């Protein structure tokens, strides 16, 4: 097990109740790092927190929608009396996966608020004291969607591309101050959220990652930012760097129609 205690004494995990977020929490708890878990649904959040307390760490919970007014204030208030050495932002779901002309501006705005606005607010709040202390870590969970646009992921892919470029810039800014920054790029992962979205995990040739493996790999890669692609997805990233964008987008669209149910 990787020693994660240098990222303590407290870590904040946004999207920490299930899937990859809960596995990040378990790994950190195993190194004695106390946790503040943030998620929208209280039930799974409290269930995960109870299991983690059995490992001997303190766990605080904040049940809130990160896009709601006052949500950032709730989280920062919950950590006002502790030193946060690590922020994991694992809350960037595609909450409005629709073709742009069939969706609503409010729906797409929620995707932007979750993946950009709330993320920036939390990173700024915790990164400033990390820089001043000369240690800490910021781990942003990204997606292969950030490398190509498709008909139902034009906005989501755009915000994920922003997240990757932002992580690179933040890494360049903070590395000389002893603060590690990483965007962990996920592919298809067998999480409850992806299962609820109806993803077809049986597409021939599709690499499917397990949450525990993703979390462990991400935490090992954290000191070596700025971007790490989860193992098994490297060839996809290379392919999506092609200059022939029309061919790439058309081909990816075919795969997405097999992977994700469409109207």
Automatic annotation (TrEMBL):
Keywords: Oxidoreductase. Pfam families: adh_short. GO terms for molecular function: oxidoreductase activity. It comes from the Bacteria. InterPro entries: NAD(P)-bd_dom_sf, SDR_fam, VLCFA-Steroid_DH. This is Short-subunit dehydrogenase. It comes from Nocardioides aromaticivorans.
């Amino acid at each position: 097990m990787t020693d994660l205690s240098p990222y303590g004494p407290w870590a904040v995990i946004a999207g920490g109740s299930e899937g990859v977020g809960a596995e990040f929490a378990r790994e950190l708890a195993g190194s004695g790092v106390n946790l503040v878990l943030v998620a929208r649904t209280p039930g799974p959040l409290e269930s995960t927190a109870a299991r983690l307390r059995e490992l001997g760490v303190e766990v605080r919970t904040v049940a809130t929608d990160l896009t709601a007014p006052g949500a950032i204030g709730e989280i920062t208030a919950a950590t006002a009396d502790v030193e946060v050495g690590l922020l994991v932002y694992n809350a960037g779901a595609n909450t409005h996966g629709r073709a742009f002309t069939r969706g609503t501006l409010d729906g797409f705005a929620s995707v932007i608020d979750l993946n950009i606005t709330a993320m920036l607010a939390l990173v700024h709040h915790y990164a400033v004291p990390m820089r001043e202390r000369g240690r800490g870590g910021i781990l942003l969970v990204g997606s292969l969607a950030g490398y190509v646009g498709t008909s139902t992921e034009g906005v989501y892919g755009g915000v994920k591309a922003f997240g990757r470029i932002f992580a690179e810039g933040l890494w360049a800014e903070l590395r000389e101050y002893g603060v590690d920054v990483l965007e962990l790029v996920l592919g298809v992962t067998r999480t409850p959220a992806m299962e609820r979205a109806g993803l077809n995990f049986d597409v021939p040739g599709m690499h499917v990652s397990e949450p525990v493996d993703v979390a462990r790999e991400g935490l090992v890669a954290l000191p070596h930012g700025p971007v790490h692609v989860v193992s098994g997805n490297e060839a996809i990233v290379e392919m999506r760097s092609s200059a022939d964008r029309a061919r790439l987008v058309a081909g990816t669209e075919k795969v997405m129609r097999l992977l994700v149910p469409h109207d």
